[in-house]
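Researcher: Last one for today. Full complex below.
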Amino acid sequence: EPEVTQTPSHQVTQMGQEVILRCVPISNHLYFYWYRQILGQKVEFLVSFYNNEISEKSEIFDDQFSVERPDGSNFTLKIRSTKLEDSAMYFCASSVQGVLRTGELFFGEGSRLTVL
Amino acid sequence: RKEVEQDPGPFNVPEGATVAFNCTYSNSASQSFFWYRQDCRKEPKLLMSVYSSGNEDGRFTAQLNRASQYISLLIRDSKLSDSATYLCVVNTGTASKLTFGTGTRLQVTL
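Model: Here's the assembly. Have a good evening.
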């Protein structure tokens, strides 16, 4: 069964360092997303990406964050200068079509980011 | 008021019991509704969509009340494998954003 894969599964970094989280969405999917979940809290939307551009982003997704689809398969999330409060599980997701009708996002297993 | 509100639980029920979860949402423009399941330290997975007419999938029944901005999930004949956190999820009309509730934790015991 096709799946969304994410690397690394866990990254520990120092405050102020840059971090890149990588994702390979399901191959025939057209919409790509990043969500995050701080431990014990709800899953929060960060950004969606369609047709090689950001289609929507949340207030969390400030200038420190960026996304890229550099080669047609990978989808990356970069955090330029990490803060302690960026510590969370970051989930990549993809979908065949937008979520308005089916709501079915296929999530990866997540990348746990710990900022010290 | 939170965009999507759920009782966090936990709900501790014996195997075979029927359990119901509720959820309220604040945005009356919300257009589509879903229940996701999240196992401990795992990714969320779609359980079922929720339609105005109500819908059933095996032991699971979902209902939507637009007037009250209320969504429910009923699980009949609970199994040990149903133990998880159930997330109420709402789309407010954009093609790309889902808003998740904090989830209701269910623990099914022998």
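The mean pLDDT of chain A is 94. The two ends of chain A are 37 Å apart (CA to CA).
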